[in-house]
Amino acid sequence: MDPTLAPGTTWEVRLRWGSRRLAAELLGVDRTRLSLGNEPGDDVDTGSPVRLKFELLPQGLVVDFSLGVTGTASVRGDQPVTVGQLVERGAAVELAPGTWRLTLGEKDRATLVVGMLVVDVRRAQGRIRRLGFDPRVLVLVGLALLAIAIMVASIAAPTPTPHLPPRPVKPKAVKALP
Question: What's the whole-model pTM score?
Answer without folding.
Answer: 0.64
